[in-house]
Design a protein that fits this description.
255 residues, globular, Rossmann fold, alpha/beta, 9 helices, binds nicotinamide-adenine-dinucleotide
């Protein structure tokens, strides 16, 4: 088991799905976890679950698309802990559509959360990380940031950008004590996927089709992604930076 003893972590979008699993896994490994989410009920539920399991966490309301709110969140974290060891940019939203069916406004909205959100939060924390010459940033991209996924134009566009942001941050700051990697999950069963399924005329058929696009023939579980985040957050992954870490049940292996 990798240890995060004495580390302070912040996970955005930790009120649901993959983010909640990462927050719980980090707390179980000994970290103090800031559970950041735009939704208060989900965020507080994650904090309660961590507390019930004997871990330490606190909720912080945050819309990652709001730059000023990200600066305020960093001030709150630094006021309490003076540092952030691990930042997980997990908050993200989805959209179904092709070039023909995606509106410009949808692309902007997707970009505002999935790309500008990662930029805003990282920018708010990186100054202190550079001062301390220590920081570990983990971004949730997607297999849709490595290969094109049918009917996901806006989503894939944002996730290719997250892989790009990850590589640029890693390269620019590698010699300054900062590591930055991203995780590229295939389809994982979370409320995110349930919401997308509702956009299909036959959600049950769409669920079966989504499961069958992965070589293993099933969707992933949030804990399976959290296990990778724990490794990336730990000192055992010290030689890894700039890597898109693919965990996709074989989605991208071939057809
Ligand atoms: N589930 C999948 O199949 C899958 C696959 C690949 C990548 N991902 C990525 O993993 C991440 C988490 O996905 P999930 O499936 O757990 O999603 P989810 O919808 O279950 O949870 C997302 C969380 O982010 C929060 N959020 C949304 N907008 C926000 C904002 N502007 N500011 C702060 N918080 C906000 C939501 O309130 C929610 O709690 C996303 O970046 C997603 O793109 C998911």
């Amino acid at each position: 088991m990798f240890s995060l003893e004495n580390k302070v972590a912040l996970v955005t979008g930790a009120g649901s799905g993959i983010g909640a699993a990462i927050a719980e896994t980090f707390a179980a490994a000994g970290a103090f976890v800031w559970v950041a989410d735009i939704g208060e009920a989900g965020g507080r539920a994650t904090v309660a679950k961590i507390g019930a399991a004997g871990g330490a966490a606190e909720f912080i309301a945050l819309d990652v698309a709001n730059e000023a709110a990200c600066v305020a969140a960093a001030a709150a974290v630094h006021g309490r802990h003076e540092r952030l060891d691990v930042l997980v940019n997990n908050a993200g939203i989805g959209h179904v559509g092709t070039m023909a069916t995606t509106a410009g406004a949808d692309l902007d909205r997707m970009y505002g959360v999935n790309v500008r959100g990662v930029f805003n939060v990282t920018k708010a924390f990186i100054g202190r990380m550079l001062e301390r010459k220590a920081g570990n940033i983990i971004n949730l991209a997607s297999i849709g940031g490595v290969v094109a996924v049918r009917d996901r134009l806006a989503y894939c566009t944002t996730k290719f950008a997250v892989v790009g942001l990850t590589r640029c941050i890693a390269l620019d700051h590698a010699r300054e004590g900062i590591r930055c990697n991203c995780i590229c999950p295939g389809r994982v069963e979370t409320p995110f996927v349930s919401a997308r399924l509702k956009e299909y005329p036959d959600p049950k058929k769409a669920y079966e089709e989504m499961s069958s696009t992965q070589a293993l023939g099933r969707m992933g579980r949030p804990e399976e992604i959290a296990a990778a985040a724990l490794y990336l957050a730990s000192d055992e992954s010290a030689f890894m930076t700039g890597t898109p870490f693919v965990i996709d049940g074989g989605f991208s292996v071939g057809k």
